[in-house]
């Protein structure tokens, strides 16, 4: 449970993230892709399979599995709606990773 000082700081921090161009672009692309439920469902399948491969494949077979996965979805990724969403999502994920690293670097947490 956060004390009032931390609660206010978290609220400010979340609002700061929401005000970034990266987050706004991600939200725009998310809403755009949701307008086509079939494409949105296929994107979610793509994301789910990508996650599973990256988190279950053995290191020595990961490259091969990812290459096959990318070939399988190559045509699908050519759809501008899909590509724009996945690029915006990746940019937002990278932003959040950078934030996480910056916080961890500033704290003495082992």
TrEMBL record:
SUPFAM superfamilies referenced in this protein's UniProt entry, alphabetically: YheA/YmcA-like
Pfam families the UniProt entry points to: Com_YlbF (PF06133)
InterPro entries, sorted: Com_YlbF, YheA/YmcA-like_dom_sf
Name of protein: YlbF family regulator
């Amino acid at each position: 449970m956060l004390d009032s000082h931390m609660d206010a700081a978290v609220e400010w921090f979340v609002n700061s993230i929401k005000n970034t161009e990266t987050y706004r672009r991600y939200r725009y692309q998310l809403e755009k892709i949701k307008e086509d439920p079939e494409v949105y469902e296929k994107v979610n399948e793509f994301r789910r399979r990508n996650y599973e491969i990256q988190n279950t494949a053995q290191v020595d077979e990961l490259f091969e599995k990812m290459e096959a996965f990318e070939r399988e979805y190559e045509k699908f990724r050519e759809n501008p709606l899909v590509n724009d969403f996945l690029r915006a999502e990746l940019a937002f994920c990278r932003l959040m990773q950078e934030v996480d690293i910056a916080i961890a670097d500033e704290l003495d947490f082992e």
